[in-house]
Specification:
This protein starts with a helix and ends in a 5-residue tail after the last helix. Helix 8 crosses helix 15, helix 8 runs antiparallel to helix 17 and helix 10 packs across helix 16. Strands 1-2 form a two-stranded antiparallel sheet. Strands 3-4 form a two-stranded antiparallel sheet. With 587 residues, the chain is mainly alpha-helical. The chain contains 17 helices and 8 strands.
Length: 587
């Protein structure tokens, strides 16, 4: 039939043009309409935000007040700095649960400060503190035990973070960054990558065998205990079957690893190639930093708009068990505006991520399709970054799809919280099925869009044609692509884990020898360092992940477009390819 002929034609192998020498330099703007739509969304977001801030007079959107969100609530339910407490904008935590509004944070020790809490008179003391936003935080913990300020765990945590901010930033960013660079250099060694991959496979098999042995032992113990009755005899059989299933999984892992050993070795070689490319173009690690700066620049006005729109509803202050809190009551119109702002943020952040992926893919593909690798360096990364803006519309196109799915998932998460109070099992089941379906759609779209950006980087096509080309290209090489993806995900996971744990551990040890007596606990700053190190590790992992996808597509495209003697693959990678091909029987 005609559609089958069209599909067969579209599924033909790639053919290189006579003048092909890597990513095209003759680029044009692609998917311009989606770039214009994104700019219009930014304009609409700005109008909504300015109206909520009161700069634009629009009766449809009430004016918000950021003080309602940032100011504290005292033990009587009053907002500090607003209304009756307008002259007292700071909240000082007198005890773990009782806070009082003050005009400024105390700088000297003042004993016997008492307030009437309704049920009793509560007395404590003012301790020297520093303002953090609209809260007074005691940052010095070197007080006698009988005069120690009675502050909640959260306030103590903020104080510890304030004291240890230099350690958190130094180890979470600088040390983690140095570890990331060191890790990328180590990945150039094939033996290290092989050790990581096969060691992980061995660990999984060992874990499965251990779990199976434990299940078998438990089944044997239950079967021999005749006093427990017939019910536990059935449970013993179930445990025995479970042990067989786990053992079968271990055997399957061993057989699968043996059967795919050549493809795993090929994946390791591609990881080595990626590490060499990043070593030659070390400016690639700056790409996520530029992305982070771009997101931060957008986040500042966006967060202001969200705060003012979110506080445009009716605020209710109250107290429970002497703990003050506030809630906001919105109408459907305000909820819709908040969902719109959330959608714009998702679209913009996904567009920034997509631009970075296209820039990295251009640099990696240029490195791959260059005979003399010594001619490719950091200047190629700068050139790739400039060329990626030709495809701003393509990035916005793919990001629009991803942002819509992300927004639907967040709305479903909000609905899930609301449905916890509902007794309808049908509604809960439908919501659960929808969340699972959207998770699958999100993963599929993320995979397809990432690889389509590589096609855009190499050939300069738009999002639609690139999706189609990358889909057929990956389908023709599905086994190798899946193996490289699995090995790549494993390497990325190990990279994140190693950077986070080592950075946080070093920070903990250093603080224990230097500022332990100034902190309430070392755990809070160590966890903060772990989180910051994770963010830093994600920058290296993002470059590594995108580079692996780009290198894999370059490899399969190189294999389809050129004869063995004309390919761009390095000698090491070519030897691995030939070895894998020699061990594969021909049909």
């Amino acid at each position: 039939t005609s559609w089958q002929e069209d599909e067969a034609l579209e599924n033909e192998k790639l053919i290189a043009s006579s003048d092909f020498s890597g990513p095209t330099d003759k680029r044009r703007a692609t998917d311009v309409a989606f770039a214009m739509l994104l700019v219009l969304a930014w304009g609409a977001m700005t109008v909504v935000g300015l109206a909520a801030m009161g700069i634009i007079d629009w009766d449809y959107i009430p004016t918000g007040n950021a003080d309602y969100l940032t100011n504290g609530v005292d033990f009587e339910g009053n907002l500090c700095g607003v209304g009756e407490k307008a002259d007292s904008p700071m909240l000082y935590p007198l005890t773990d649960t009782i806070g009082v509004c003050v005009d400024k944070c105390p700088t000297e020790f003042t004993p016997d400060i008492c307030v009437d809490a309704g049920y009793d008179e509560v007395c404590s003391s003012y301790f020297p503190s520093k303002p953090v936003l609209h809260f007074c935080v005691v940052v010095d913990s070197s007080y006698p035990q009988d005069q120690e300020p009675q502050q909640s765990t959260m306030i103590q945590l903020v104080a510890d973070l304030y004291t240890a901010w230099a350690y958190i930033g130094g180890f979470g960013f600088l040390v983690a960054g140095a570890l990331g660079m060191m890790y990328l250099l180590l990945l150039q060694c094939e033996s290290i990558v092989l050790l990581l991959v096969w060691g992980s496979i061995a660990a999984v098999v060992t874990m499965l065998v251990t779990v199976g042995s434990m299940a078998a032992s438990e089944a044997h113990a239950l079967a021999n205990n005749h006093e427990l009755g017939k019910y536990l005899t059935t449970e013993a059989r179930a445990m025995q079957i479970a042990s067989y299933v786990v053992y079968a999984g271990a055997v399957g892992c061993v057989v699968g690893a043996f059967w795919m050993r050549k493809k795993i070795h090929l994946a390791v070689s591609i990881v080595n190639e990626v590490a060499r490319a990043i070593s030659d173009m070390r400016a690639l690690v700056v790409v996520p930093i530029v992305q982070g700066l771009g997101m931060a620049l957008f986040l500042v006005p966006w967060l202001m708009y969200v705060v003012y729109v979110g506080t445009s509803g009716e605020v209710k202050s109250s107290s429970f068990a002497d703990i003050g809190y506030k809630t906001f009551v919105h109408d459907e119109k305000t909820d819709g505006l908040l969902i719109f702002l959330l959608w714009v943020w998702a679209w913009t952040s996904q567009t920034i991520l997509a631009l970075g992926q296209i820039a990295v893919a251009i640099a990696i593909s240029r490195w791959y399709f260059t005979r003399n690798k010594l001619t490719v360096g950091n200047i190629s990364v700068c050139k790739a970054g400039a060329q990626s803006f030709y495809h701003f519309g393509t990035a916005a196109y793919g990001a629009l799809v991803m942002a819509t799915v992300d927004t639907i998932r967040k709305v479903l998460t909000y609905t899930h919280a609301k449905l916890q109070k509902c007794d309808s099992r049908v509604a809960k089941m439908f919501e659960y099925v929808m969340r699972c379906c959207m998770w699958v759609v999100h993963k599929a779209l993320k995979f397809v869009s990432k690889h389509s950006y590589v096609q855009t980087a190499i050939f300069g096509a738009g999002f639609g044609p690139s999706c189609k080309t990358s889909f057929y290209l990956l389908a023709r090489n599905s086994t190798r692509v899946s193996t490289v993806s699995a090995v790549g995900e494993l390497i990325v996971m190990i990279t994140k884990l190693a950077i986070c744990v080592v950075s946080a551990g070093l920070c903990y040890i250093t603080m224990s020898y230097t500022i332990a007596d100034q902190l309430h606990s070392l755990v809070g700053p160590a966890v903060a360092t772990l989180l910051l190190a994770y963010v830093t590790a994600c920058t290296f992992a993002a470059v590594l992940d995108t580079s692996l996808s780009a290198m894999m597509q370059c490899f399969v495209a190189d294999e389809e477009m050129f004869a063995p003697g004309d390919r761009y693959a390095s000698c090491t990678l070519t030897g691995t390819i030939n070895s894998a091909a020699a061990s594969t029987p021909t049909s």
